[in-house]
């Protein structure tokens, strides 16, 4: 999956439509000066602005760093943390305490409403007694294969 910077999305969408910055900013519902800062990478555009541009480009599978902005997020990491926590029989509050990640953040991460930072992933993995590499697909599958009997019975 190739990562595209938000300002590249804005610029591509505007060029695809063949309109000026002023006209495009008006379509997005923002000022021309704000749009100019977004397109040149001086400021980060809001999720709503990027989402509108993605729709104009026909891009559907766009994932953002955080899900709390109201955009659907890839929840796989939260599901993995939840499963590992339950296999180790560690309550969520205990995991929060051991890792130093606030309880409300742990809860949102597990539910898939919040995407954890790298530091949080490292802290949560070590609090569960794992290396952060456990969250890689091949390592996670290999680990779960040890518990195959639990899932098939």
Q: Total strand count, please?
A: 0
CATH architect. name of the largest domain: Orthogonal Bundle
CATH topology of the largest domain: 434 Repressor (Amino-terminal Domain)
Protein structure class: mainly alpha
**What global shape is seen?**
elongated
Approximately what portion of the residues adopt beta-strand conformation?
Answer: under 5%
Q: In angstroms, what separates the terminal alpha carbons? A: 36 Å
Overall number of domains:
2
CATH class of the largest domain: Mainly Alpha
The arrangement of helices and strands along the chain is HHHHHHHHHH
Number of helices: 10
Taking pLDDT < 50 over at least 5 consecutive residues as the criterion, the unreliable ranges are 65-74
Describe the structure in your own words:
With 153 residues, the protein is an all-alpha fold. Helices cover 60% and strands 0% of the residues. The protein is built from 10 helices and no strands. It has helices at 6-17, 21-28, 32-39, 47-57, 76-87, 92-99, 103-111, 118-127, 137-145, 148-152. Residues 65-74 have low confidence and may be disordered.
């Amino acid at each position: 999956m190739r990562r595209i910077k938000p300002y590249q999305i804005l610029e591509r969408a505007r060029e695809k439509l063949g309109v000026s910055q002023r006209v495009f900013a008006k379509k997005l519902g923002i000022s021309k000066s704000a749009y100019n800062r977004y397109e040149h990478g001086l400021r980060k555009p809001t999720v709503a602005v990027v989402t509108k541009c993605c729709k104009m480009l026909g891009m559907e599978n766009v994932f953002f760093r955080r899900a709390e902005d109201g955009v659907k997020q890839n929840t796989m990491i939260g599901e993995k943390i939840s499963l590992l926590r339950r296999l180790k029989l560690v309550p969520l509050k205990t995991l929060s305490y051991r890792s130093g990640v606030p309880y409300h953040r742990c809860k949102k991460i597990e539910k898939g409403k919040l995407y954890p930072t790298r530091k949080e992933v490292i802290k949560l993995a070590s609090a569960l007694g794992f290396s952060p590499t456990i969250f890689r697909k091949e390592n996670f599958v290999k680990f779960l294969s040890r518990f195959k009997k639990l899932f098939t019975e």
